[in-house]
Specification:
Layout: H1 3-16, H2 26-40, H3 48-57, H4 72-80, H5 85-96, H6 111-122, H7 126-139, H8 144-153, H9 165-193
Helix pairs in contact: 1-3, 2-3, 2-6, 3-5, 3-6, 4-5, 6-9, 7-8, 7-9
The protein binds adenosine-5'-diphosphate and nickel (II) ion (NI).
Length: 194
């Protein structure tokens, strides 16, 4: 892997996500990158550089944050690093396949795409997933209870949509932790009424 390009990508997203506090911050992308590399260890045939760059770029053109067309932020950066047009297209295709809401029920074709999608989903689960849901809720003016609705709408469904065996193991642990949290929340909420 070309570490200089990876370092440049980290710097690029650091700058781009400055000031974002809704769970879509730079640390989310860095965790997705780490998750993806970890999953990729079980797939020696996969292209780790493509996985790494797609992970780091996966939110740089998110329509909720940026008003770009055709993955412009990702393309601009990748071009500046002399990545081939073919690889840029491949990375953008993977990025566009990551979103849960946009790709409900469809798994990416390539193993690289499936790994990055899993890596992003893992970061919506567990303790981190809980923290991100409330961070997002606060940012968009939702009550705690309405952010909780997001758990049944989306987060509790994710573990059944994981592509790789390695990620599924991690997802199961994180899912169980979220369920425990919800039970505890309910218990405390009921105790308060009494
Ligand atoms: P994706 O684009 O991969 O579907 P999102 O951009 O929708 O993911 O979500 C980013 C983060 O914000 C996730 O951690 C998700 O759980 C959280 N989030 C998204 N929508 C809501 C919501 N309505 N309430 C609370 N959290 C949310
Ligand atoms: Ni993401």
């Amino acid at each position: 892997m070309d570490n200089l390009i990876i370092e440049a990508a980290k710097q690029y997203i650091q700058e781009l996500f400055k000031g974002n506090s809704d769970g879509h911050d730079v640390n989310h992308s860095l965790r997705v990158y780490q998750n993806a590399l970890k999953i990729a260890e079980s797939y020696p045939e996969c292209n780790v550089m493509i996985i790494a760059l797609a992970s780091l770029m996966h939110d740089v053109d998110d329509h909720k944050l940026f008003d770009t067309d055709n993955n412009m932020n990702a393309r601009r950066f990748l071009k500046s690093q002399n990545i081939s047009d073919e690889d840029i297209d491949l990375i953008c295709e993977i990025v566009n396949g990551v979103s849960f809401s946009r790709n409900r029920g469809t798994a990416p074709e390539s193993i690289e795409g499936r790994i990055v999608q899993d890596a992003d989903r893992l970061d919506a689960l567990g303790a981190i997933g809980i923290a991100r849901a409330f961070a997002y809720g606060g940012r968009t003016g939702q009550s705690v209870e309405s952010a909780l609705q997001h758990f049944s709408d989306k987060l509790l469904l994710l573990k059944d949509e994981i592509n790789t065996e390695e990620a599924r193991e991690m997802a199961d642990i994180r899912h169980a932790y979220m369920e425990e949290f919800l039970v505890e929340f309910q218990k405390e909420a009921e105790a308060q009424v009494l």
